[in-house]
Amino acid sequence: MEQFVTDLRSLWAAESDEEARMCRARPFLESILADDDIKAHSKNWPWTVGQNLLLYEDPDFGFVINATVRPPNSRGLVHDHAHAWTIYGILDGTEQLERYERLDDGAQPGFAEVRLVSNTIFQRGSIDFVAPYEIHAERGGPGRSVAIILRSERLVGRVLQNGYDPQARSVRKMSGPTQVPYTLNL
Hints:
- This protein is α+β, with helices and mostly antiparallel strands.
- The protein has one domain: Jelly Rolls (Sandwich).
- Strand 10 and strand 11 form a beta hairpin.
- The chain is globular.
- The chain has three helices and twelve strands; from the N terminus they run H-H-H-E-E-E-E-E-E-E-E-E-E-E-E.
- Strands 7-4-9-2-1-12 form a six-stranded mixed β-sheet.
């Protein structure tokens, strides 16, 4: 994990474009997801329903490394990450990532019509990019699942995201999951 942070800091120092940073960070995340020691260590991580474990927040560049530990068959909210970039990788178990498209023009406050356009199953080592304002939801698989998440910045408590209810055809501003500082003692 220390090497992951070192590599990310070097990348952020050398590259100023957020999208390029996130694309170039993929191999670093792949290394973490393939690390059997980190996977074994994650067996002791707490459930994160409505929360993210905050593994690291960079003091100079602002990127954040989070983890989620989902119970079997959990259902996350349909949401976006505002203007932030996110790379989401599965360390253990399986999850589904649902992608949605917005059908209305956003002109009516509180109203949003979204439609499911894809539902992809991810397993250990799978990585997904979530660009700014992309509407999506994560769903836990049949067993416990663990994901490592790299965000271009920490949003919670600083930037409001959008939460969508496809059935009610509504959208609301929300702060996102609570960030719980968590120290990795590998």
